[in-house]
Structure formats: C-alpha cells, structure tokens
Amino acid sequence: MQPEYDLAALKSFFKENSSFVILSHCRPDGDAYGSAIGLGLILKDLGKKVVVHIEEGLQEHFRFLPGSSILQTPPPQAPDPCAKIILVDCSNANRPGSYFESWSRKVDLNFDHHIDNTLFATLNVVDPQASSTSEVIFRCIEKLSLPCSKEAASNFYVGLLTDTNAFCFRSFPPETFELAAKLVRLGADPEQLSVFSFRNYPLSRFYLLREVLNQTQFVEQSQIAFYILTQDMYQRTGSVPGESENFLYYLQMVNSVIVAFMLEELSPVLTRLSLRSSKNFDVRQVASKFGGGGHKQAAGARLKLGLEEAKRAVLSEIKALLR
C-alpha cells in the first residue's frame, strides 16, 4: 500500500502554511467525520489555524467523536486567500456541496481512498488499497513523524471501523489491522468506539427500519434485495436522512443475497442510489453507469430519474451483470 505522492512536498505543505480549511462530502459517514476531524486536530496541535466543515454539520449519531467541536456550522464564508483547502474522502471536487463551488477556489490537497478519484488537487494523496481515508491520513502522519493525540487517534479509528463495517469487508489487507492496533496504543478505545458507532441510535431510526424491512423486495431467486425510501417515510417516523445509513447490511444478512441496493427520493426527478455487494460482485460497475462510483462492495450514484424509472434502470443493469 504505497500511494504515489511527494512526501517532501506534503511535509513542506504542512510546515510552510499556517491556515487550513478541511472539507468532506455531503451525507457524511464515519470516515468523512473521522478523517476530517482527526486531521483537523493534528493540525491544530501543530499550532495551525484550522476550519473543518461538512455541509450537514455534525449528525446526532456522531456527537461522541472527541474534538468534534472543531467542526464549524453553518458553512464558513469564503476563506482567507492564504488558507489552504484540503478535501478528505472525496473522489471529486464536487462532493463537498454547492457552497464550495461558490468559493471558486482550487483544492490544494486531496486525501482519499476511492479508486475513481479524479486527482483534482495540486497535491494528491490517494490510495485505493487503503480501507479508508482515515488510514491514508494516519499513514502520512506516521511517515511525517507528526504527533497524534488520543482524540485524533480515536477519530481515525472510527473512520477505519465504519468504512470496513467493523472490519468485515474483504477488500483491505492485514496491515489495516496493524494500523488499528497502533491507534489503540495511542488511546483509541475499541469497545467504546464500537458501541458508539453501531449501537447509538435514536428510536426514530428503528421506526424507519421497520418500514424499510416491511417493504423490502427480493428478486432473481433472492439474489437481489432492495428497498425504497420516500420523504413520507421520514416524516411518518420522525427520522432524518442520516438515520438510514447502513440499512443495507440487514438485507445482506440473507444468505442468498449477492446485491443489495437502496433508492432514496431526493425530489420527484432525483433519486439517490446506494449499493452493497458480496461474492465478488462489483457494484462500482452499476454505479458508474449512472455517473457515480465508489468501491467494489460499496458504491452509489444520483440518478436524474423518479423512483419508478430509477428502479427499472438499476434492476436492469444488475440483472445484466448477474447473468
């Protein structure tokens, strides 16, 4: 796992600059938060001025993350021209949201682990073999011999933990476990962080899950499982979009399921697609057909289609690849 980048240039970037703005993607997950907050804490401990921002702010579920008060909400104004822009866990420069586009600023540093990353920054540190962006950043921190506090280590650990689904995915090497052990030695608490990451949800999430499971469909000899999320479902259950994260894992518990996907209504003509797979089925191939991307076992896209049209289109692509 040796991403190609200029370590000397990275060292100079952190040493010679005093102000940084760290951004991650919309609909944040544990790695988006963990990598952004963890890196922010590292730079703050170096005496740097740091702004960390994610469009939706800090979701209730992730308020346990140590040092999360560094996250700024609402969106910051266009930063000082001297501030350096860092994007984490973003495969392209459009992922942070519309506010970033309005700044008309170039990206100075890109930390990521997506294979379809477009290498959009002046300095790109991208390792598709890494389990998470948190892993990519921590390996750089090690190589640069920068201090890593217990709080930063805990954030990076949550990034590893959530992006590997509690280390259940098969797409990362043994070195990832060794890196997790290093983070534990630095003070990350595996039991506590696991409980907070996977057993720390509001009751509304379970009302939403009940509706999802009640309408889940299985097709193609139960090799494909999917469900649809509508705005009405959120309203009925008193839940918010972030609470539907990881519902696809319940569908993958069925031993016949090879591909599980979710379609979420964003508007009458815009649908969000999320896919998960097992048994060597590459869902990235499906997502790419609709302008999306991701990883072999986890990918997504946004379709400029209504729910029914999107369902037909996605099912058609998956069935063709299964045959």
List keywords for this structure.
323 residues, alpha/beta, inorganic pyrophosphatase (n-terminal core), Diaminopimelate Epimerase, Chain A, domain 1, 2 domains, six-stranded mixed β-sheet, five-stranded parallel β-sheet, 12 helices, 11 strands, 38% helix, 18% strand, globular, DHH_sf, DDH_dom, Oligoribo/pAp-PDE_c-di-AMP_PDE
Write the layout of secondary structure elements.
Layout (H helix, E strand, L loop, with lengths): L6 H10 L2 E5 L6 H16 L3 E5 L30 E5 L9 H6 L5 E4 L10 E4 L6 H11 L6 H14 L11 H11 L4 H9 L4 H12 L2 E3 L4 E6 L1 H7 L10 H4 L7 E9 L2 E8 L5 H7 L3 E2 L3 E6 L3 H16 L1
Parallel strand pairs: 1-2, 1-3, 3-4, 4-5, 7-8
Antiparallel strand pairs: 6-7, 8-9, 9-11, 10-11
Describe this entry's structure for a reader.
The chain has helices at 7-16, 30-45, 98-103, 133-143, 150-163, 175-185, 190-198, 203-214, 231-237, 248-251, 283-289, 307-322, and strands spanning 19-23, 49-53, 84-88, 109-112, 123-126, 217-219, 224-229, 259-267, 270-277, 293-294, 298-303. By secondary structure, the chain is α/β, with parallel strands linked by helices. It folds into 2 domains: 7-198, inorganic pyrophosphatase (n-terminal core), CATH 3.90.1640; 203-322, Diaminopimelate Epimerase, Chain A, domain 1. The protein has a 6-stranded mixed β-sheet with strand order 6-7-8-9-11-10. A 5-stranded parallel β-sheet has the order 2-1-3-4-5.
